[in-house]
Amino acid sequence: MTFKFAVGTILGIVLMAVFMPILASDYQQRLKDYSSNVSYNEGELAKIKVYQCITPTIYRRPSVLSVFSIGLEKRLSDSAKIELKNIPIIDAGSAEVNPYLSVFPIFDAVLIIKVVIGVLALILATDLVSGEKQQGTLILMLSNSIARHQILFGKTVAGLMVLTIPVTATFIVGLIILQVFPLIDLSAWDWARVGLMYIVSLIFVFVMFNVGLLFSCLSKNPAISLLLGLFFWILCGFVIPNLSIHLASKLRPQQTAEILQGRLQSIECEYKSEAEHLSYGGTFSSTEGAFGNYFHYICDQRALQTLSEYNNRIQPLNLQFAARNWEAKNNHLQSLLYQRELARNISIISPLWLYEKITDSLAETDLASFEQFMTDVGLYRSQVIEYIRSRTNNFSSREFFTTCTPADYDQLIEFEGQLKKKYKTMSEAKNEYEQWQKNMLDKKAPLDLRDFPRLVHNSHIWQTLKYVLQQIMMLVFFTFFFFALTFAVFQKYDVR
Amino acid sequence: MTNEFLQNIKSLRFVISILIIIVLFCVSGLFFTGHYHGQLDDYFKATNNNLSGLRAQTDQLYKLAFFEQNVCRQPDVLTLCCEGYESQLPNSFKFNMFDITLPEVRGQRNITLPKSDRIDWVFIINIVLSFVAFVFSYDCFCGERETGTLRLILSGSISRHKILLGKYLGIMLNLGIPLVLGIMINLIIIVVAGDIYINTLEWLRIGGIIILAVLYLSIFVLLGMFVSASTSYASHSMIMLLFIWVVLVILVPGLGRIIANIEYGDVNATELNRKLKETNDLINQSALAGRYGDNATFFSWRLDDPVNNPPARKRSLAALVEAENQVYYSHHNNMLAPVIAGRRLTCISPSVIFQRASEIIAGTGINRCGNLFEQINRYREQLNDFIGARDQQDPNSIHLIFKDQTAIQDWGIISKKPVDFDTVPKFQERDFALGQSLKLAIWDIGLLVLFNLVFFAAAFVSFLRYDVR
Fold it and tell me: Which of chain B's residues have a Cβ under 8 Å away from the Cβ of A256?
């Protein structure tokens, strides 16, 4: 129970106790927004009167563990609109709507462990060999018959055991505070991931400890060891991740947004030229329906006929061009991912970066979970389209675009005749006419969507685990690598 | 002082620090040079596009009014000192004579990568040098106490405050060497190898940033001396300082985003669209109700048709444009407000103050973006005046300039005469004047000085009472 240990542990716990409520309330707010969005969706789905209006927006449930590791959660879009004209793809998110916020660094609970406890591990370790050397106790110890490797093992094991305490305490405090929030509910799978996150945190702290120990063996002065250790920490935490991104953008320049824009525009032109051959006629009036989409509530016989043919041809065209648009956007995305891959490969040499990535994956705030979400939504979109297609005879039936039946139109004509007799001008009859419209719309029952497909969230536990395990192995490798180095250096350490 | 300075300069920590700092400054310079040239190319391409677009419109005055200009933020040399996260801030502004939209982020940006900080001077000073300041100062009293030399010094006739001042100046000089050396190498790379021109005003600003850096680092040195004079063991002092550093430099700046989110909530596009729709509905209703005159919403292609009321139509459309611009304008302010508030609430950390002050002195970062938006708005008004004045000279126009493309063809609301391209006002970004920057930064400088005074007093008092036994 040294002074440094006390300060480090208390600081970690206090910081967690102060910041966790802020992070949790931020998450709670996001969760509330998510729930209100979902219930809006449900409400609108219940109001659907024509199939054309089915354009729900699917929201990604904010990950509860984002309080620990925020990752790309606010950087990428967490929603996707299901529509015929567009296939969802990963895009910039809501936080990017206010780009000015990017002046602030990211803050999450893992940062406390990465920074405070990581530094504590360095401090504890850097003192072990060079500190004892300076005090002269190391020479005493070695003059006994204990072998060097035994001393090193002893020091390492003791150090690791000691470091388990602040990590555990910080996690427990964080989790207790998290449980206080009424809306936050951790499932069994969440607990498992928190458990894994805890283990990974321990491994990370062990890496930092071994790095400290290595520097301790490299120098005869504990202050210098600590200095070296901290420069290593700054290098891994700030310099390497930033440099890797700069390097990647230099070596693998991404496809510019202008190219994408040009491509999309040319597709749009092609679409227009194909779509202009298709037309419809007749008399119809539109009104706003579910999800803010407009639909025709009055159509004469000709409109019914032509719109049916029009939709039968334009909607497949929409689908076809949606796929082409997606392809162009996906090409652009791939160039971004290609760049990202290089940045990843460079920064993998930094244990701090690796730790951050593992916790992101565990918190499901990494790119892979967003990709998975978009894939799920893409599949769901196909189901929805198939559903609409099968119900509307390939988008051609009346229910796809209108609530109006031929009988409705006859009624309207009759009603207009009555109004003409009653009033001189149409503006006098306006109120009565609007009332009639409203009544007619109210009479139309919403569509029966009981068998409407629902989005099934596939759980990707094994995929996540497989992905995470590789990275954990890498972190474990770092632990042994630095330990082996320490071992080699300590064998030759001059204790005089 | 000389003694302290010489002692430190011979130490290993000095050698390691100076090496690391110089390497970082070199890397920063090399990256900046490449990046800056690329940025300049993009900027000139975009600006030339915009100007040639503008030139193409000058054959008829009305086209000029409706032409959507796209202005880009000019790359600033001083981003080498303080990038101010500019690569992630909006840099593209689209507007025409009538309306503005929100600025956008254009160019090389990869959303799949976590956001990165540019390794600029402020980054190196803020994170690395502040830590080095602690490394130099953590043992200046307690270390000497442990070795017993402090007693020897004090047994001489030198007074305590002289020792304190001597140590302070010695450490500052020690820090000054890597700082100045690093900056010099960085500038040499940029000016000589990168072939980038820096004008007098920019040199002055660079000087300003160096002064800020000295003020900032001095806080850390004094803090280090204070802690060193309050503890008995160098190891305790180091640990305390390390944790102080972690909190002040790493954790507190990160809090800004959370504070901003909680105080202001998310400023999102849905909200903007809702407000735009509301405004639109409101103006349309009042136009229907006859607020802008009779028949404000009617349009028939023949101007002499009695159903037309051009002045009323102009009034209603002008009101709509004005109201929409107001919505965009206030939305933009709402986007800026959380950032400013977040920074204000985190300025208990000198690191945040230093970052903010350097951005202001360098004329980069968020202030510049906010200011640029205002400038664009003013330029739009200037363009309005110009087109208005030109329109007055044409007897064929009815001099009712409003945003309605069809009205131009059929009613001739704006002149269709050609204009001389050279007389058309063009947008030119103006930096804050140095005096203005200083005025803006004065609070931050004051705060930095205040921190210095407080920690100096604290170090002084605790050293006067320091038990050297």
Answer: 107-108
Q: Is residue A290 part of a domain?
A: no
Per-residue model confidence as pLDDT tens digits over A394-452: 898 888 988 888 888 888 888 888 888 887 776 677 778 888 888 888 888 888 888 88
Query: Which residue of chain B is at minimal alpha-carbon distance from A67?
Result: B258
For residue B66, what are its two tokens?
Answer: 């409706």
Long-range CB contact pairs, B425-429, < 8 A, 24+:
B425/B379, B425/B382, B425/B383, B425/B386, B426/B51, B426/B54, B427/B69, B427/B71, B427/B375, B427/B376, B427/B379, B429/B73, B429/B74, B429/B372, B429/B375
Q: Are A365 and A71 in contact (CB under 8 A)?
A: yes
Q: Which amino acid belongs to residue B129?
A: L
| A457/A424 same-domain check | no
- Compute the distance between CA of residue A129 and CA of residue A224 in angstroms, rounded to an integer: 12
* Record: contact A111-B251, CB cut-off 8 A: yes
pLDDT tier, B52 (very low <50, low <70, confident <90, very high otherwise): very high
Tell me the HSE value of A287 on the side-chain side, using a 13 A CA sphere: 16
Tell whether A388 is covered by a domain.
no
Q: Is B71 in a helix, a strand, or coil?
A: strand
Check CB contact under 8 Å for B239 and A4: yes
A274 and A409 in a single domain? The answer is no
Across the interface, whether the CB atoms of B108 and A254 are under 8 A apart is answered: yes
Interface residue of B11, B20, B104, B257 to substitute, partner A, most A CBs within 10 Å: B257
Say how many CA atoms lie within 13 Å of B203 toward its Cβ. 7
Phi, psi of A294 (to 5 degrees): -95, 145
ipTM of the complex: 0.83
Residue of B nearest to A112 (CA): B251
Q: Model pTM greater than 0.80?
A: yes
Kindly write down the DSSP assignment for every residue of B161-228, as one continuous string.
HHHHHHHHHHHHHHHHHHHHHHHHHHHHIIIIIS-----HHHHHHHHHHHHHHHHHHHHHHHHHHHHH
Q: pLDDT digits over A110-148, tens only?
A: 988 988 899 889 888 888 887 777 777 777 777 777 778
User: Does one domain contain both A465 and A409?
Assistant: no
When divided into structural domains, chain A yields a total of 2
User: Can you give the residue ranges of every domain in chain B?
Assistant: 2-464
| Residues A273 and A408 placed together within one structural domain of the fold | no
Q: Which string of b and e fits A161-183 if b means at least 16 CB within 10 Å? A: ebbeebbebbbebbbebbeebee
> d(Cα B344, Cα B352) in Å, to the nearest integer?
9
- Cβ within 8 Å, pair B247-A221: no
Interface touch B89/A102, C-beta < 8 Å: yes
Residue whose pair of structure tokens reads 């002499």 in the numeric block: B304
State the residue range of the domain holding A428.
404-443
Contacts of B246 in chain A (CB under 8 A): 11, 115-116, 119
